[in-house]
Please model this.
Amino acid sequence: MSGFHLAPDKRTSLADAVALVHDGAQVALGGGLCARLPMALVRELIRQGRRDLHLVGSAHSIDVDLLIAAGAVKVCEESYVGFEQDLGLAPAFRRAAEHGDIEARESCCVTILTQLRAAEAGVPFLPVRGVKGTDIRRLHPEYGAVTCPFTGEELVAVPPLSPDVALIHAPLGDRHGNLHLDQPYVLDERFAAASRMVVATVDRLAGTAEVADAGVVIPAHSVAAVTEVPFGAHPSSCYPGYAYDRPHLATYIAAATKGGAELADYLKRFVRAGEELYRKEIDAERLSSWSESTDAWKELFR
Model:
């Protein structure tokens, strides 16, 4: 279960926040697909040279793929990694999985959710039905079997999941670590409750009253560190502030697909240069125009 982090002021630099994540840590990634991914934290993990991470999440894209491309990942426990019908497969993930450079432990969203709930409830397992008869069982020797005492049905028993740290990006938070998220929450609430700590970035730090009026989704006691990083989810979106950056995602996918010098150039330009230079490169303010009109948001994705 989540620890209690009671410091009255959790504000820190991005570098110091990420210093809380150690090599080999089990890291839960907030957000999903191309929405509200903790990308500033992901880039800082790469800059600090983290290795052997065990990633856990639902359905993710550039956050997982970029960490794999940078050689930071040992185990990837996700239900899906890719860019859907929009931009296709995740090239670094696919290459690493095919070559055995990472251990790909495919799971499914509801199974991960059930494991997080087991951790929250403090019980040694919870039953699931969805993975019965699939090879997901083979990928997870830690799963067991249990017979229902009421119906006699055999179900899969999954153990609690308590990640070492959950990395979460929110549009709004305060210095204590209270975080407001707009729906959908994906697994962020459950990650926050089940992980040993949350390390968070926010697009904007505000007073506690403003965060409370918006609605506290993740309470301060779960959060060990918070840092203000405008557009910290880019190139994914963070509703209602900005849309996802489809051209930038396409740029990354092209570089990751080619690998070698092209990927190294991407990492040098957009990761290793640091967040301040990154924000100057991406011109993210244009993505905030998505809500002005239907034509405005359509134009962003041409």
Remarks:
- The chain has two domains: 14-106+162-289, 127-159.
- The longest helix spans residues 109-121.
- The mean pLDDT is 94.
